[in-house]
Amino acid sequence: MDETSLLKQLARSLMTGQPIAAADPLRPCWHLAPPVGLLNDPNGFIQHQGRYHLFYQWNPFACAHGAKFWGHWSSTDLLHWRHEPVALVPSEPYESHGCYSGSAVVQDNRIVLIYTGNVKYPDGSRTANQCLAIANERDEFDKLGPVLPLPAGYSGHVRDPKVWQHDGRWYMVLGAQDLQQQGKVILLVSDDLQQWHSRGDIAGSRLNGLGDFGYMWECPDLFELEGQDILICCPQGLPAEAERYLNTHQAGYFVGQLDYVQAHFPHGEFHELDLGFEFYAPQTTQAEDGRRLLFGWMGIPDQDELLQPTVAQGWIHTMTCPRELSYHDGQLYQRPARELQQLRGERRYWQGRADDAPLYTADSAELWLQCDGPFRLQLAQALSLEWDGTRLTLSRPHVRTADLEHRYWRGNLTELQILCDHSSVEIFINGGAAVMSARYFPQHKLSFDFTGDAQLNLQHWPLAMPVIE
Ligand code: FRU
User: What is the best residue among 56, 57, 120 to mutate for testing ligand 1's pocket, by most ligand atoms within 8 Å of CB?
Assistant: First the structure.
């Protein structure tokens, strides 16, 4: 379909669906969600001239994966977001099955998008073109077309370019699958964003001391933090273990040192970035004040997504909250971006036995707690968190079977910071040393219901803020 037809269909979809989606009580109070249809990966996250830009994988026509558009929001404070013109519409033959994920850079003071043009063939095969688009004066993006066809030695699964500048040159990492069906990350270099030269695989299954580690790696991101190079990626095909790799696909990171000359990336072991039920395809950017910020998609591909109840209201999925990354004591930390503290209403403080704790209720809230022993916390009667002294267990009924499903963290619990929106919860453990993110679909107003003998220190804030202007 040509661009005009796609935009006419998009207008109809919005006019019909937006009032219904907007009235859904499960729509987030302050997380980013699609106006209609399906949202997945955060794309093109960047700050330019003080304004943050966040693009997103978007199917505006249905709550299903399909030929993706790039939606676009912007904000000066990470709290108030405004809709920008739709950035990319999959109208060209080189992107016929979607303007897939990618990133943004600033070149000559203009934002340039680097994304994957995904093309599927009737026999089930596919190819991928890495493409550019550049901002014009109307805050729209003009396509410059493909700059990199499918490299030799890989299947048609090569996508999700993340580009950054280092020592005056442009570098790109790409998620890939090689011809032996092993997931890989390819490093490429360019002097002008147009001509790209492959430096080969820098990480992947059966590389750098890893054994079999997935048939495809999606959405890589590589950046420096406190003198370390962090490679984020999403390996698909890791077998589930008793307490980890429990989602259909994983999102995690390796810490190492990238040798830009030799194109080597010796690294340590893989760590999951989030131990909850929904977290995937995260993307980071460096803010103008130097902070490394991250957004993730609070969803997992192929994980019974389309059974979520918001589908009946014509929308599905949200972003995580924006998070600040730091690295110390050999560990990556994620904390809610400090701007989010501005959402806090009046603080309530309470100390005492878990069984006696007040039942705080709110539409959306932040809870901070310390404990001296085991307790159980029930959230909106829809999701529970249990600390037994050695293991933290997050549980909820499975969206298809209604059987309880669980996710785990082990360690020495010192504090929890929990952010709850109408249909999501993000649990930051020990100052962000671990995180558990999940969607939930409560039928009741949000409440925090504690049981147990432990002594608790609690702080509670209602959170409120209109997100979209
Ligand atoms: C990850 C992903 C990416 C791809 C995009 C398509 O969720 O599969 O690899 O570019 O979604 O929407």
Answer: 57
